[in-house]
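Entry for the shared binder. Reason: the reviewer on the internal report wants the predicted structure included alongside the sequence.
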Amino acid sequence: MSRNDKPVNGQDNQSFLDLLNQTPPAPPAPELEGKHGTMRFARLRAAWKASWEEGGFLYQRWEEVFQARHASWHEVANWIKAVALFGGLSLIVLMLDAAGDIASATLKGLSAVPATSASDGSGLWGTVDHPVRVFLADQAAHLSVAPAALYAFWQLTGLLGLVGGFLGNAGARIAWLLFGIGSLAMIWSAAPAGGRAAATGLAALMWALASMVALRGLTLRPVVHNHPPQYQFNPALHLHATIPAPTPAGDDYDPDNVHQLQR
C-alpha cells in the first residue's frame, strides 16, 4: 500500500488511493441499484471528501502549498520543488526555442536586404547609410563573403549594442562604441569628397544621440565606497609609578626619640 513520504502527527499520511480503497461505498439509490458505475462514483466522491478533511492527503498538500510562500527553498516540500524545477526548465526551453526562431528570422530578413540600394544617399539617414553600404560592397569584392552578409552583420551589431547597452551590459556597451567608431570610419572613407566632413559629422551627432540610450546610467565620476574600518582604535593612557622600598630599621632618617608606646 503506497503512502506519503511525510508523516502527520507521528503517523504516515495515507494517500488518496489508499482512502479510495478503504472508503466503503455509499449505498446507491433504490432505482440505481445494481449499476456498477454508480457505486464507483460514490466511492470516488467519498474518497474525495475524506482526502480534504484535516489530516487527509489533499488537505496536507494544500497546507504545504500555503506554507511554501513563507518558507525557504530547503523547507519546501520535495514535490513542490520538482514541479517548480520542471516548470522552470520547460519555460527556459520554450524561450530558447522562440529566441532561436526570432534570431533566425531576423538574420534572414537582414541578409535579404541588398548591400547597395537604389537610394542615391538623399535624406539624413541616406547620408549616413549609403556610404556604409558602398564601403561594405567595395570591401566584399576582395573577401569571400557576400555584401549583404556584411551589411546584415553591421546592422545586427548596432541593434544588439543599443539594446544591450540600454540594459546595462558592459560587453554590449563596448560593442556599441566599436560600432560607432567603425561606422564613422566607413562613412569618412566612402562619402563624397565634397561632403565628407558633413556626412561624418552628421553621423557622429546621430550616434551621440543614440548613445544617450545605449550608455544610459554610465558616468565618468569615480565611485567612492565608504566602508567602516575593519579595526577599532581605543586610545588608553598607561601610567607607571615607582614605589620606593621601605626604609630599614635603624636608618639615620628615623629620629631616635621616637619610641613605640608600651603599656
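Summary line for the report: The first helix runs from residue 16 to 22.
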